[in-house]
Amino acid sequence: MAPSSYEMAASTLLCGEDSSSILDLEAGGQEEEEEVLLARSRTRGEPSVVFPVPSEECVAGFVEAEAAHMPREDYAERLRGGGTDLRVRTDAIDWIWKVHAYYGFGPLTACLAVNYLDRFLSLYQLPEGKSWTTQLLSVACLSLAAKMEETYVPPSLDLQVGDARYVFEAKTVQRMELLVLSTLRWRMRAVTPFSYIDYFLHRLKDGGAPSRRAVLRSAELILRVARGTCCLGFRPSEVAAAVAAAVAGEEHAVDIDKACTHRVHEERVSRCLEAIQATVALLAPAQPLKAEGPSSGRSRASSSSATVPRSPTGVLDAGCLSYRSDDAAAAAAASHASSAWRDEDGDCSPAVCSKRRKTSR
Amino acid sequence: MATIQNKPTPTAPSTTTGGGLRAMDLYEKLEKVGEGTYGKVYKAREKATGRIVALKKTRLPEDDEGVPPTALREVSLLRMLSQDPHVVRLLDLKQGVNKEGQTILYLVFEYMDTDLKKFIRGYRANHEKIPAQTVKILMYQLCKGVGFVHGRGVLHRDLKPHNLLMDRKTMALKIADLGLSRAITVPVKKYTHEILTLWYRAPEVLLGATHYSTPVDIWSVGCIFAELVTNQPLFPGDSELQQLLHIFKLLGTPNEEMWPGVGKLPNWHVYPQWKPTKLSTLVPGLDSDGYDLLEKMLAYEPGKRVSAKKALEHPYFNDVNKEVY
């Protein structure tokens, strides 16, 4: 369980109880929240430290590296076709968002979890008709993201809150983590829009410091983009530049030119910006689930464990964990993994079978 | 002058799974050479090529934690940073199973025959000083490596002589052990008061700041610089309080004038009011440029500490052959 006194956010961000604001900022509440945050910062007695904006060198390095942290090119197209992949992704992200809100993780953790999910799904075919694999993948991606980014990471069992239909043993989660790591070749320090956003906000403000409202709003938009599919084909730098332009544009007219350096193309940023603005206009502000209190969460998890059958074991045997840089071998390994999972059909216990429900969508 | 041989860039590390037996069939362990943040390190020979490597081994017990964050962070960061000649190169990652059925990870690194801690200790044992030019080229490489790491948005957070690997013949120096490293990222978030080796820990960390950044690594670099010159650690405290007192006794107790905001840090108290001692007394054996650079590395106010990149431009390094390093 997360310690109740634990504060997950820095002064410019939100404490756990305010985490919903990252996902659903309302215009009226912004100034109030900013004052609360400032007061909180002062109360804690820490001096307000201004961190350096990412340097030009740093940004250039990120732009150079970011392609290695994106899903395979055909993934966006596959999702736009709808079908299984999109459903898997939507279910996984819904669950990730619930747990993220419950534990008050930072926005980068959510962004990383979605990055891992997308990259994995673009490379690896989950066996069809086994919804528990979606759940297990969600747990693994969020767990890995939290380990990369959070200072406190709940144990595997405690992480599985948010009405999970299956609860997996720690060793099963670990095996899935290892599969995700192998598939993504351990490139978990992903470049994301968060790597750039402060840089672009500065540029669009002619070097001035962005307001806290702009930072919070940017984080909200980045997560909304990550959750949706409209910008999947765009690079993180393009998403960040477009988000910065959208946010800065709410305060004053902006010239996108100023954000387009280091081979970030203005045309692509403009298209990305259009996609973001279309999405924002289309959706009402997302309403996150209310985070449950620690005690009710605990009892729920407990009760859940008592009634849900043990997670499938032996599914991820050693053969599933093979991955070679050679594409043919990787395909063979993936196929082998799928076969191994398919072989489990006959072992599906009646209780597990009966737990499956059609996802209404 | 020693010449660094630039090896051709190896292919990206592959990840392979065999049984533990199979992974170890590829390598012959020669000797255990140390422990990293989370595992034992062995000198080993790759059977197929005869190449000498360092194997870093970690068991993954199937407990609640799953893959340990330290292993996850180190591998991920090395995948990002290994192309720089001043960061130790990760050659491969092997995954296997031991006799008890536990998953074992082997990180395969280029082998470096010593580390800075052993190097310094060797001189100390002989009652000799490290030659001034050697200090300079080691410091140049250290600043360059740290500059690269910071330039990629990463804090090391555990820089100390033991984590700086060396090749005695070439005097090459490389940064290792990124298990405690962190990305510098926005939105800025709170870091815990995680374990950093005390002697090289920056005062803002000791005073409980959680919003620290690249200057914490520069403080460590400054401590290492002083140690290279004198063969002795500059601030060898044995508790957090003792560490702070060591620093304050030697550099003077900070106040709001020299370090605005220091009084608001969580662990700030009333401390005895010591006056600063001259660096030339604390660290005898440097020239004036060296003292100027060291002073800038050990500035109390984090924002005033020199950056690694700026340090490389400092006059102290003017006579380093920058093409070679």
Automatic annotation (TrEMBL), chain A:
One of its GO terms (cellular component) is cytoplasm. Residues 94-182 form the Cyclin-like domain. GO terms for molecular function: cyclin-dependent protein serine/threonine kinase regulator activity. Residues 191-307 form the Cyclin C-terminal domain. Residues 293-313 have a biased composition (Low complexity). InterPro entries: Cyclin, Cyclin-like_dom, Cyclin-like_sf, Cyclin_C-dom, Cyclin_N, Cyclins_cyclin-box. Keywords: Cell cycle, Cell division, Cyclin. GO terms for biological process: cell division; G1/S transition of mitotic cell cycle. It comes from the Eukaryota. Residues 289-314, 334-361 are annotated as: Disordered. Belongs to the cyclin family. Cyclin D subfamily. PANTHER family: CYCLINS. This is D-type cyclin. It comes from Zea mays. The lineage of its organism: Eukaryota, Viridiplantae, Streptophyta, Embryophyta, Tracheophyta.
UniProtKB/TrEMBL annotation, chain B:
GO terms for cellular component: cyclin-dependent protein kinase holoenzyme complex; cytoplasm; nucleus. GO terms for biological process: G1/S transition of mitotic cell cycle; regulation of G2/M transition of mitotic cell cycle; regulation of gene expression; signal transduction. Residues 1-21 are annotated as: Disordered. InterPro entries: CDK, Kinase-like_dom_sf, Prot_kinase_dom, Protein_kinase_ATP_BS, Ser/Thr_kinase_AS. Residues 27-317 form the Protein kinase domain. ATP binds at residue 56. The keyword Nucleotide-binding applies. Keywords: ATP-binding, Kinase, Nucleotide-binding, Phosphoprotein, Serine/threonine-protein kinase, Transferase. It catalyses: L-threonyl-[protein] + ATP = O-phospho-L-threonyl-[protein] + ADP + H(+); L-seryl-[protein] + ATP = O-phospho-L-seryl-[protein] + ADP + H(+); [DNA-directed RNA polymerase] + ATP = phospho-[DNA-directed RNA polymerase] + ADP + H(+). GO terms for molecular function: ATP binding; cyclin binding; cyclin-dependent protein serine/threonine kinase activity; RNA polymerase II CTD heptapeptide repeat kinase activity. Belongs to the protein kinase superfamily. CMGC Ser/Thr protein kinase family. CDC2/CDKX subfamily. This is Protein kinase domain-containing protein.
